[in-house]
């Protein structure tokens, strides 16, 4: 396992820090999850549904870890945290701004006391600026950070992106930063302070929309399933359902036109180049919708795929989970030592092998500490 021998101490709640730690755990790190003695991580109760005593969400974010119960607000708890910190390679938290310093485990004293420690701090609005002390949640940051302003139909209300992109994205950025810091430590012997936040993550997800605005001066707008700079690219209605078509080049548009039975569209001055098609989006989409409604989604899919035009049916989550492509990739794992717990796996493979779920999500406080190092 890539990170075998790396010890990670996680003091996380709900999503961001637990996800960062789970990424490292899936790659082989030993992760010890610190939880409150009473109740533990709030995510344990974020159901229904539940597997056993804990919510499905908790299981998905906390496999391959062990749990230790510590009252970090007590003198005894602080002493135990410091003991564990001295044994850890990485410490990850997403505590409220100011709380780590109040508890005595802020980045400055911990980095001074344990110079080899990689200390990862995941916040809401970042470690600098007038909002650095504010707490925040996914929905608030999707709104304040920009993604919500460009999500939804053009004539509808802004909507939340379904997945918690900022929580999970911040966990992912933290994991990337931690891996970089570990590489640096291998060269220099020194750890590092890694900092990210939901707000920074939200801005990064809107980077293409932001650069487009800075280049054009035109504020981005909600486009539904459409793309602001590529046409045709989006959801279209067939005779019996929704079909996604992505003809992202002039070559693909020519093929699409031929499949539609209108090869002249490719030479029409309104549609000859992508720039022309963006300007004349409404006219082209009206023509496409009229033709597409004449056949079923399955018929169009077969014709478009045969011609090499990218397309896809709109699948539900249950459909995705049982699709043969999902099965072939091994993206759903049965967790050992559980009663039918099945979780979505890490979207990474190493030498063709996807990291497996070795341990189920932990029962609260069952661990005494890190395992003894071999050798």
Supply the key terms.
375 residues, alpha/beta, Rossmann fold, formyl-coa transferase, domain 3, six-stranded parallel β-sheet, three-stranded antiparallel β-sheet, 15 helices, 13 strands, 38% helix, elongated
Number of domains: 2
What is the strand tally? Answer: 13
Overall structural class, as computed from helix and strand content, comes to alpha/beta
Order of helices and strands: EHEEEHEHEHHEHHEHHEEHHHHEHHEE
Task: Please state the second-level CATH architecture of the largest domain.
Answer: 3-Layer(aba) Sandwich
Look at the structure and give the CATH class of the largest domain. Answer: Alpha Beta
For CATH, the homologous superfamily of the largest domain is named as: Crotonobetainyl-coa:carnitine coa-transferase, domain 1
- According to CATH, what is the topology of the largest domain? Rossmann fold
Helix content: 25-40%
Number of helices: 15
Enumerate the strands of the largest sheet in spatial order, edge to edge or round the barrel: 5-2-1-6-7-8
**What distance separates the N and C termini?**
17 Å
Low-confidence stretches: none
Largest sheet report: 6 strands, parallel
Radius of gyration: 25 Å
Shape: elongated
Instruction: Provide the β-strand percentage band.
Output: 5-15%
Mean pLDDT: 95
């Amino acid at each position: 396992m890539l990170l075998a021998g790396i010890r990670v101490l996680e003091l996380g709640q709900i999503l961001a820090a637990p996800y960062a730690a789970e990424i490292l755990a899936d790659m082989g790190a030993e992760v010890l999850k610190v939880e409150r003695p009473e109740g533990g991580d709030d995510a344990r109760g974020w159901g229904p549904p539940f597997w056993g005593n804990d919510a499905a969400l908790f299981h998905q974010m906390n496999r391959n870890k062990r749990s230790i119960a510590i009252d970090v607000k007590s003198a005894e708890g602080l002493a135990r945290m410091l003991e564990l910190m001295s044994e850890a390679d990485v410490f990850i938290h997403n505590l409220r701004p100011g709380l780590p310093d109040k508890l005595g485990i802020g980045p400055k004293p911990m980095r001074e006391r344990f110079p080899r420690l990689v200390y990862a701090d995941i916040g809401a609005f970042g470690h600098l600026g007038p909002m650095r002390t504010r707490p925040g949640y996914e929905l608030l940051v999707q709104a304040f950070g920009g993604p919500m302003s460009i999500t939804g139909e053009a004539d509808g209300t802004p909507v939340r992106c379904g997945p918690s992109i900022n929580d999970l994205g911040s966990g992912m950025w933290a994991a990337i930063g931690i891996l970089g810091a570990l590489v640096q430590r291998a060269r220099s012997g020194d750890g590092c302070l890694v900092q990210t936040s939901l707000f920074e993550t939200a801005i990064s997800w809107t980077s293409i929309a932001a650069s487009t605005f800075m280049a054009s001066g035109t504020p981005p707008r909600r486009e539904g399933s459409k793309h602001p700079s590529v046409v045709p690219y989006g959801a279209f209605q067939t005779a019996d359902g929704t079909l996604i078509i992505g003809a992202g080049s002039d070559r693909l548009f020519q093929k699409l036109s031929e499949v539609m039975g209108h090869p002249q569209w490719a030479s029409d001055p309104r549609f000859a180049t992508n720039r022309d098609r963006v300007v004349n989006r409404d006219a082209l989409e009206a023509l496409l919708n009229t033709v597409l409604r004449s056949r079923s989604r399955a018929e169009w899919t077969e014709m478009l795929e045969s011609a090499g035009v990218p397309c896809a049916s709109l699948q539900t989550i249950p459909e995705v989970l049982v699709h043969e492509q999902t099965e072939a990739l091994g993206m759903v794992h049965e967790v050992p030592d559980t009663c039918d717990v099945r979780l979505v796996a890490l979207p990474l493979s190493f030498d063709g092998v996807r990291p497996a779920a070795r341990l189920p999500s932990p029962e609260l406080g069952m661990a005494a500490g890190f395992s003894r190092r071999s050798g």
